[in-house]
Amino acid sequence: MAVDQIKRLYESMPAKLEQARRRFGRPLTLAEKILVSHVDDLAKQEWSRGKAQLRLRVDRVALQDATGQMALLQFMQAGKKQVAVPSTVHCDHLIRAESGAAADTQRAIDENREVYDFLYSVSKKYGIGFWKPGAGIIHQVVLENYAFPGGLMIGADSHTPNAGGLGMVAIGVGGADCGEAMAGLAWEVLDPKLIGVHLTGKLAGWSAPKDVITYLCGLLTVKGGTNKIIEYFGPGAESISATGKGTICNMGAELGATTSLFHFDDRMVAYLRATDRSDIARLAEQHRASLVSDPEVLRDPRKFYDEVVEINLSELEPHIVGPHSPDRARPISKLAAEVKKEGWPASIKQALIGSCTNSSYEDMRRAAHIAMQALRAGLKAKTPFLVTPGSERIYQTIKRDGIMDTFQKIGGTVLANACGPCIGQWKRSDVGKGESNTIVSSFNRNFPGRNDGSASTLSFLTSPEIVTALAFGGTLEFDPVHGTIPGPDGKPFRFTAPEGEELPAQGFVRGEEGFEAPAADGASVQVVIAPNSERLQLLQPFARWDGEDFRQLPILVKTKGKTTTDHISPAGTWLRFRGHLDRISDNMFLGAVNAFTGEAGKGVNPLTGQVDTFTKNARDLKVKGVGWIVIGDENYGEGSSREHAAMSPRYLGCKVVIVRSFARIHETNLKKQGILPLTFAKPSDYDLFEQADRVSVRGLAQLTPGKPVEVVVHKPGGKTVGIQCNHTMTDEQIEWFKAGSALNALK
Length: 747
Ligand code: MIC
Ligand code: SF4
Known about the structure:
Layout: H1 3-24, H2 30-38, E1 53-56, E2 60-64, H3 68-76, E3 87-90, H4 101-111, H5 113-126, E4 129-131, H6 138-145, E5 152-155, E6 169-172, H7 175-182, E7 187-190, E8 193-200, H8 209-220, E9 228-233, H9 242-250, E10 259-262, H10 266-274, H11 278-286, H12 295-299, E11 307-312, E12 319-321, E13 329-331, H13 335-342, E14 348-354, H14 361-376, E15 385-388, H15 392-400, H16 403-409, E16 413-414, E17 437-441, E18 457-461, H17 464-473, E19 485-486, E20 492-493, E21 515-516, E22 550-558, H18 565-568, H19 581-584, E23 602-604, E24 611-613, H20 614-623, E25 628-632, H21 644-651, E26 654-659, H22 664-672, E27 676-680, E28 694-698, E29 709-714, E30 720-726, H23 731-739, H24 742-746
Parallel strand pairs: 2-3, 2-5, 3-4, 5-6, 8-9, 8-11, 9-10, 14-15, 14-17, 15-16, 17-18, 22-25, 25-26, 26-27
Antiparallel strand pairs: 1-7, 4-21, 12-13, 19-20, 22-28, 23-24, 27-30, 28-29, 29-30
Helix pairs in contact: 1-11, 3-7, 8-9, 10-11, 14-16, 14-17
This protein binds alpha-methylisocitric acid (MIC) and iron/sulfur cluster.
């Protein structure tokens, strides 16, 4: 965004904030200030945390190559000439880690040519900035180039909140939301509740920004942040670099939070300057009062936040989370005992650092400091060590400063500046299929099957410096903070706490950054999609609701326990089909655990009684014109923003999803695609549903915001049980349902 636009935003803030203070009758927190300055119509907007729907004007939209394909296919249907807000596309998810940066990037360019060409030509045509494969991971590139204090951004990726490290409200959403904002519509979100995290003390020694968020994940759990913004403030915040703040906000996605952000401070100024944005830093300094909470809020936070969490950074121990869920947390000092008790494989097979979460200069410096200590002592890494730099700028800078060299000396492999192993784009050959094994990384997610497609891999997440030390220990039983490992001379070797500058003393190297600006006039640019492509498919509108109640729908799947988007629509090799709805639907529910059998990915075809994959069963129902229903557990749809987890079910005939509770982005994605998302009024009603039941939903013509819906369960013997379910649809969202999708309603 051009500096003059930021200036205009800042200049408009004081008057709007004053208006809001008068209206609310109280001072404002930072998140509120940013929301207030971005509402579409301040005079008419209703406010009520957890209830009102906010209509906002975003400053920017960010897309990546996996979810971006659907976002752009939907945007194209709006028939606009240009995007209405500054937008960028980042090619990062489709590069598979196999043999190292250069070869992997080249292979990705060859394998994904058709998709890259599509993204490139759409970007060129509609005024979107395009970041080529190898340029970096979306969130790191956005932090380096586009994020700014006080801004509002949406991105088709759940870790978009990374930009909160620079004091921005940055929210992960589905592709349809992005498509609409790019087409010039206001963007809607539930007025969030606010959690204040008051930081005191100072990060020091082994404790890293990652520990703030892994600790919070343990405390608040994966659904603790749902429909809430997490605002960090207090004297401790100043001890965390801007990129460290980014790590914390990034992984706030694992709490299900709408977003996370920090108040503007001098660490942000330093980062803006180091990334060639002194002009923005200066502007923000001039408008500091608008970019932090009002003083009354800081003095008495409990009056203004719905919840306040206190963290004394000086007492925060390094944490490690996993396996299988980011909220399974404990201090590293407690891990060894738990590993023994649980019988997890202690031996570490792979150690990985980097990703969008943790690949700042500071992270790499501190990890290299650990590696240097080991090298000097003559130690060898016991496990393969993989490094994923977040961007070309980081890569070139750590290369110049000898950090890459250090990693290579310990036998590390430098992968492309891309998602790679974080999203299952990882060709691993060191373990057999189904072999139980342990990996540690500095990434943010660890759901079963995520990194290498194998649910038998136990993935643990912690700071890059701890990952690096663990690579030398080779076992989860090693506590680098308190313990020792045998040195080459047999004597115990102890690491000293990591150190490292937050920003490169000689400045960042810009490198070949791989940015392509759009055409000045895109009218003549052609966007081609081959009719026989297996990678891309133009979208056909979903059918309108026929005006009838849903009668006697069979249950395609009742899921048990965690049902993340990685369970509903796995990534890894399936990323290949992210632009082709029919092809990708073959992965539907592959990871979902069938509550009736405990098996993943398979169930009884309700019409034939045969056992098959959920996809095959759904395709059979679709051919026979029978709609179906999904029953789900807590926090259904946790994790990614991928709308394929809503589109595939919709495409194959799903009408209703009833669950104990939803994750925010997925619930919206279901609404956008015309599926009815319901929650049990009584969560124990989940237990009522059995394989052979049929389910009716009544009174659809009278759907009303805030009013429950009547659901009837028909038992095989003819008995029926009526239950109540709730929905969170607004009048507008009910129109989406009736039109068949938000996109249909728009047209
Ligand atoms: C992820 O971390 O799960 C992803 C892959 O980045 C997703 C987006 C996607 O599925 O393409 C996300 O976080 O939204
Ligand atoms: Fe990529 Fe992983 Fe970050 Fe998602 S979490 S954007 S897959 S690096």
